[in-house]
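Problem 12. The chain below contains 196 residues. Write out its predicted structure in token notation.
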Amino acid sequence: MILPIVAYGDPVLKKIGENITKDYPKLEALLENMFETMYNAMGVGLAAPQIGLPIRLFLVDTSPFSEDEEFSEEERKALKDFKRVFINAKITDEEGDEWAFNEGCLSIPDVREDVFRQPKITIEYVDENFKKHTETFDGLIARVIQHEYDHIEGILFTDKLSTLKKRLIKGKLSNISKGKISVDYRMRFPNQKKKR
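Solution.
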């Protein structure tokens, strides 16, 4: 089932997510719905707060980047095969010189800006079967994970922009929060009443 994506301005996007346990209600269906929602919106990552749930859960599928010629053959293969569910994640280390990449977000449509992030991360998490992992990622995979991880920490990519950049996009952000935007996927806007 395709779920509405919560738009910029909704308080849930600013909440730090809660850990969940393996008996979280209907987790398997939730994950299926999240993947379906993400693919429908042409995303490469989706975090639970983006569908209105303040929990520490996000998923990533970087395969759309595998077609991009700017990456080496080796990078494209890694991107093509990377599809993961991250539950109760904690980034334990970030290293390397920060690099800029033009990021966007399904909750903030039509806004793209360069964001600086470190290229290498180590993250602890459990997967959909609640198996523990500690892994190190770098490059674009690390960046997508960092972006989604920020969502479960109540941080949006726009929070990482300079004061000047924030001023320049203020009007766009205001329009998004008011629902004055045209998108080709389902969204829920802060002033919209929840359907019963």
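Discussion. The chain has one domain: 5-188. Students who got a different answer should revisit the alignment rule from Section 12.3.
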